[in-house]
């Protein structure tokens, strides 16, 4: 279970519901350190005085607000605590809106709200009321010395508090150069293309299952790290591969109908393959991979799409340069060597 990062209460009207706040997300980024390649010693981050160029100890550092050029007001931790004591202890609901009316780009970080002591009854009352009305609660809450606008939503049997961006933090969509949406003629999309695209979307539709999607870049990078550890290359850097400059190509007219038809055919074949009996799959010989190569991951729609794009790019490159497949493989072997 995630740690408690905040204790307070949900308030709306005269209702007060004691709750605790728990993180609803976690970072899966790799924790990498900076190293000096000459002796593998860690390279640390230092707080440097910009006037003297010397490091500054933590106890000598304070936060300051510049109200005029080179004129500051220093703020202590107590100043932040005393700014608004009540605001730091409550999730103050200010209104209720239809949940589907909130644009997704306003959402920032999710948190779980859990009832604290004597808060179960009020928690259940608010949850079921919001579920029945289909509303989301807009609230103000102070987290880590900053006030946030937040949306409180019902997910299964939990209340989820999602911090949001304020309106002045969101750049206007009107600044974008976008195709007009008033009629197919204005967008350049023909009725036949739209019909085939709709059919492709319907064929590719499936139930929401986030577990099947993974950070494949992180997985592949970890596979390279594991391979280096197993081979004893714990202090060796991989030399950068030489990249060949791709030949410039002229602009091409894209036949959307042909691309959509190929996509539908490809997806239909893949659907047939996925529906074959399990015993037939068991009979098929398994492919083996080199011990030094990163382990292959389960194919996801994102990986399959990326593979298709990479395959199409290679085919176009070979056709433009006139190289045969054997020449390409020889070049690849020389690179690996």
SSE topology:
Elements: E1 6-12, E2 15-23, E3 35-36, E4 41-42, E5 63-68, E6 71-75, H1 77-82, E7 90-98, E8 107-115, H2 120-133, E9 135-143, E10 146-155, E11 158-164, H3 184-187, H4 191-204, H5 216-230, H6 256-274, H7 278-283, H8 301-321, H9 325-336
Parallel strand pairs: 1-7
Antiparallel strand pairs: 1-2, 2-8, 3-4, 5-6, 7-9, 8-11, 9-10, 10-11
Helix pairs in contact: 4-6
Subunit structure: Homodimer. Interacts with LigD.
Keywords: DNA damage, DNA recombination, DNA repair, DNA-binding
Pfam family, one: Ku
Describe what this molecule looks like in 3D.
A hairpin with a 2-residue loop joins strand 9 and strand 10. It contains nine helices and eleven strands. By secondary structure, the chain is α+β, with helices and mostly antiparallel strands. It has helices at 77-82, 120-133, 184-187, 191-204, 216-230, 256-274, 278-283, 301-321, 325-336; strands spanning 6-12, 15-23, 35-36, 41-42, 63-68, 71-75, 90-98, 107-115, 135-143, 146-155, 158-164. Among the domains are: 6-25 and 82-169, Ku70, Chain: A, Domain 2; 217-223 and 294-337, no CATH class. Residues 284-306 and 308-337 have low confidence and may be disordered. A seven-stranded mixed β-barrel has the order 1-2-8-11-10-9-7. Strands 3-4 form a two-stranded antiparallel sheet. The longest helix has 21 residues, at 301-321. GO terms for molecular function: double-stranded DNA binding. One of its GO terms (biological process) is DNA recombination. Residues 265-337 are annotated as: Disordered. With LigD forms a non-homologous end joining (NHEJ) DNA repair enzyme, which repairs dsDNA breaks with reduced fidelity. Binds linear dsDNA with 5'- and 3'- overhangs but not closed circular dsDNA nor ssDNA. Recruits and stimulates the ligase activity of LigD.
């Amino acid at each position: 279970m995630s740690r408690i990062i905040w204790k307070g209460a949900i308030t709306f009207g005269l209702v007060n519901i004691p709750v605790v706040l728990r993180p609803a997300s976690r970072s899966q980024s790799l924790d990498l350190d900076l190293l000096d390649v000459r002796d593998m010693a860690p390279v640390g981050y230092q707080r440097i005085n910009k006037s003297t160029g010397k490091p500054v100890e933590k106890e000598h550092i304070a936060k300051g607000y510049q109200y005029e050029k080179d004129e500051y007001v220093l703020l202590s931790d107590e100043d932040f605590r005393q700014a608004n004591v009540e605001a730091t202890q409550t999730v103050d609901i200010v209104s209720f809106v239809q949940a589907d009316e909130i644009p997704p780009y306003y959402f920032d970080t999710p948190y779980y709200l859990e009832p604290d002591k004597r808060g179960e009854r009020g928690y259940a009352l608010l949850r079921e009321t919001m579920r029945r009305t289909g509303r989301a609660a807009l609230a103000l809450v102070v987290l880590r010395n900053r006030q946030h606008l937040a949306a409180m939503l019902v997910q299964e049997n939990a209340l989820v508090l999602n911090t949001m961006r304020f309106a002045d933090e969101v750049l206007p969509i009107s600044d974008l150069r976008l195709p007009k949406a008033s009629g197919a003629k204005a967008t350049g999309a023909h009725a036949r293309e739209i019909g085939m695209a709709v059919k492709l979307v319907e064929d590719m539709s499936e139930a929401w299952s986030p577990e099947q999607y993974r950070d494949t870049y992180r997985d592949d990078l970890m596979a390279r790290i594991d391979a280096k550890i197993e081979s004893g290359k714990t202090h060796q850097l991989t030399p950068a591969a030489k990249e060949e400059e791709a030949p410039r190509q002229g602009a091409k007219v894209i036949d959307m109908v042909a691309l959509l038809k190929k996509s539908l055919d490809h997806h239909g074949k893949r659907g047939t393959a996925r529906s074959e009996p399990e015993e037939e799959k068991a009979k098929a010989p398994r492919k083996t991979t080199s011990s030094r190569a990163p382990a292959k991951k389960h194919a996801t729609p994102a990986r399959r799409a990326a593979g298709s794009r990479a395959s199409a790019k290679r085919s176009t490159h070979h056709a433009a340069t006139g190289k045969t497949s054997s020449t390409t493989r020889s070049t690849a072997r020389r690179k690996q060597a």
